[in-house]
Amino acid sequence: MPTAKTTKKKAPAAKAKISKTAILNKYKEHVLTHDAEPRSVFTFAQELGISESAFYEHYSSFEAIQASVWEQFIDDTIAGIKKDQPYQEYSNRERLLAFYYTLIERLKQDRSFVKYTVEGKLKRPELHPAFLKSFKTQFLAYAESLIGEAYDDQEIVKRPLISNGYKDGMWLQLIFIVGFWLKDDSEAFEKTDAAIEKSVNLSFELMGSGPLDLMIDFGKFLFQNK
Predict the structure, then answer these.
(1) Residues 6+ away with beta carbon under 8 Å from 114
(2) Handedness of CA 23, 27, 33, 37 (dihedral sign)
(3) What pTM does this model have?
(4) How far apart are CA 150 and CA 204, in angstroms?
């Protein structure tokens, strides 16, 4: 009596593995080509030829990819200025100028992606998009360090209540600069360079000893003698 043949089922082919950088680059390519995010992580994973779970091994969401890109922007910027020998000899005003110039140079490499991620989302800087959270945290740490050195060098002065807001003022300044640059249609973004210089000079004049102190002193006088 013939025996029934036993057929072995082939195990499904394993999905290919992919690097974190490859996922990030493919995501950037997709949004810039379609001007929209993939419909879902599932469809994006299919596009990459990987399983959905393989995507989650690297990123929790598309927003996490955007956050990773922006973290790289500021990491590259800070690394760039710190390896520049003249930076160590700069005044703190010049260091902030160098930071903004270097940041814009870095953003130029991904201008279309920057525009895609932030366009329409920076109208209220105090309500920054979640993907900028880590970027903002790192920038505020940098600003706080810069401010501390500026106090020591007497480039700026401590003022009751106001001083605590210096770093937040710098964050608003950064948002202004990025927004200005995205709208700048001048050759080689010359207007952005001018905006950075004027903005930083103004902020250091306001944080330094000068007219603002006279205004505060006058305000205290009026309050005490009303």
Answers:
(1) 107, 178, 182
(2) positive
(3) 0.85
(4) 10
pLDDT score, position 212: 64
Does 117 have pLDDT greater than 80? Answer: yes
Please write down the HEC assignment for all residues of the chain.
CCCCCCCCCCCCCCCCCCCHHHHHHHHHHHHHHHCCCCCCHHHHHHHHCCCHHHHHCCCCCHHHHHHHHHHHHHHHHHHHHHCCHHHHHCCHHHHHHHHHHHHHHHHHCCHHHHHHHHCCCCCCHHHCCHHHHHHHHHHHHHHHHHHHHHHHCCCCCCCCCCHHHHHHHHHHHHHHHHHHHHHCCCHHHHHHHHHHHHHHHHHHHHHCCCHHHHHHHHHHHHHHCC
**Considering the chain, what is the average pLDDT of its residues?**
89
